[in-house]
Known about the structure:
Layout lengths: L6 E3 L9 E11 L7 E7 L1 E6 L2 E6 L8 E7 L7 E11 L4 H5 L15 E6 L13 E4 L3 E5 L8 E6 L18 E2 L1 E4 L15 E3 L6 E5 L3 E6 L6 H4 L4 E3 L5 E21 L3 E8 L4 E2 L5 E2 L14 E7 L2 E6 L4 E10 L6 E12 L7 E3 L3 H16 L17 H14 L4 H11 L21 H18 L2 H5 L2 H12 L2 E2 L4 E2 L30 H20 L3 H22 E2 L4 E2 L10 H9 L5 H13 L11 H10 L6 H12 L23 H10 L2 E3 L7 E3 L8 E6 L6 E8 L2 E18 L2 E14 L1
Parallel strand pairs: 6-14, 11-22, 32-35
Antiparallel strand pairs: 1-13, 2-7, 2-9, 3-6, 3-8, 4-5, 4-7, 9-12, 10-11, 15-25, 16-18, 17-25, 18-23, 18-24, 18-25, 19-22, 19-24, 20-21, 26-33, 27-28, 29-30, 31-32, 33-34, 34-35, 35-36
Helix pairs in contact: 3-15, 4-6, 4-15, 5-6, 6-9, 8-9, 9-10, 9-11, 11-12, 11-13
Amino acid sequence: MAADAVWIWKENKRPADKEVCFFRKEFNLDAIPARCQIKVSADTYYILYLNGNAVSRGPGKGDRYRKYFDILDIEPYLQKGRNVIAAKVVYFGDDYAMAALLEAGPLSRVTSSRGGFFLEETDTDLGISTNTHWQAYSGGGVDFVSCVSAKYTGYMEAVDLNEYPKAFAEIDCSSRGWQLAEKVAGKDHEITGGLVNLWVPEENPLPPQYNKEISPVAVKRSCGDVNWEALIDGKEDLELPAGGPYWVEIDMGELTTAFVGFEIDSMGERTVELTYAESYYKTNKDGSLRKEIRDDEKGSLFVGETDSITLASGYNKYETMFFRTLRFLRIDFGPSQFPIKVKKLSFTETGYPLDVTGEWKSDLPVWQKMWDISLTTLKRCMHETYEDCPYYEQMQYTMDTFLQTVYTYQVSSDDRMARKAIYDFHSTLMPNGLLTCNAPSKFIQIIPGFNLYWIDMLYHHYIYYGDAEFTKRFLSTADAVLGYFARKIDPRDGLVHDVGYWQFIDWVDQWRETRGTPVRNREDVNVIYNMMFVYGLKRAACLNRILGRTGTAEEYEVLAAEVSESIRKHAWSSDKRMFRDVTGVETYSQHSQVWAVLSDIIQGKEAADLMDRSMKDKDLARCSYSMSYYLFRALEKTGLYHLTGTLWETWMELIKLNITTWPEDPVSQRSDCHAWSSLPLYEFAANLLGVQPAAPGYKEIKIAPYTGFMDRAQGKAATLHGPVEVKWEKVPEGLKMQIKLPKALKIRVEYEGSTRIYEDTDLIKTII
């Protein structure tokens, strides 16, 4: 049986700052075992190698109380005779003040109080569990440089390969500079004294990230009379004579997330800079930058974040420690008196291995393009967690994540990341009852309204998956959130007052100065938040009633009715015939009208008339890409789904800019990859194909296609039972439909007021 593993580092001393440490252990095998499973973890991040092959990167992002380990089978990488297992580990400090200044490494990767590496055999005894017989090497010429704009993601790398232990992952490695590692912690909880060992990891609930080799598609611009195309086709080495500088800009074809590496022979020292960008930029008269056609390099600036690598004499091989987000790459080869030969430029795309079973097939190219771009955007924002954007932040935010989970449910039955996200936010519960709006994170951000999206996230997961036990676990957290808002009700007007913090709603021009909120001071009563509170109460009441907490459900329903009446009394303008954004202030937005409808503060024909006016009134602050999901729901609820036709022009106009992923918002368009904008995934599957759960967990399926935008549609919507395939076409007799189910299920087909129920069937061909 293998000896117990311990946490190791170069020395049993807390690092004063961020630190890189290399580890290795040689071992011999007379025979290769049928299976060799190991557990691996690190504080903060590791890359594991076996016989020179990169095997795994991790661990998954945890929080202060959860450090994950990855389970791997390394048998495919073993060989008879000599073997070496090695790791490169980077530690980023846990200084909260530095995190708040965006200077503490990747802010979404939570560290412990010191560096550490852990590897444990579980079913063999090869002698590779981490202990003080492992070798350690510190530094290696790896340093970190603060990002210019993407500070949330951490640092860019500055590496001197003259100091780097080039062969540390290979069997033949010089022992110079290496030392024996030291134990910094055991693997178990203390069983006496009440102490908590925060080093005890638990299994990562998510599967390993996928890794796929990809290639660039074109050279955009360059400097130097050399064969730059060799970097694209990879068929021959690229030779750069002495002199320079030389540079080239490369197009990846679409925005991607990838580890970037190279193999270069150099006769002497030379600097290589790798700069990553989402888009080319144009310059305004005041010197500021703007985005237009994303791949138009003519008269454009190349602006991005840069890794800098100093080559040593001889063979150089390097790959970035963290994935880089890029659509375009600029490589600068600094001037040198020595020639170099670029033997290989590598891109290893990575991300969450989402099993996509949903699809959309259209003979209308723009509609097909909207689906394809949406799916790419969603996948690029899924790694160890959902992410708001991979380039600038890589942070899991509640509003973004709610939308991403709903979009995921349309294309895949895999809800593992959604479950983890619900748990991640639940784990941030503060004494006052609020959840942080970002998790996991080294520092706290609070947007009170985002708590209500978390309740909607919990509600939708139950509707799509019907997992009562999972949902019950989080009802008390929903109670805490709603309790916070309830305690803010002022008895003088029955409205929620001064929720504090950042009362963000949406990125719109009218709220630019107040950073996405109509609220300008603490005395303002945020009407939209009151409406969202009512909405959250009703969602929670529904869950509580279904899951047996009828008393709590009734309390929430009564409170929702009381706050609704107060909103009607204090926020409705009889002159404007709309709800104000702030009581006593004549400012209006689509958002207030949308939330009034969704929370049933206004119903029936009055609600439909309100939504109709909100679509026609051009003076209103209008819903941006993210809030459009709720705008579409309000139009759907009021029977005005046909009015969404003009809204699709927003996405169609974006396509003309040659984007490959959807941008963040129409105000700044800072990020070019924000999955909260992937609305077509939901609309095409749930409304144009019409597939929705009619009962929790798809125990019954509703199929009610909207046919107003096209003459035919075809595709698959994911469900937990498998994909539901729908094909419909308008014919003189009505609507010709073909529905193929993954197994015999009960479905309800609705079209233009008619309803047909089908019991225990898996294939339907009909004309309605």
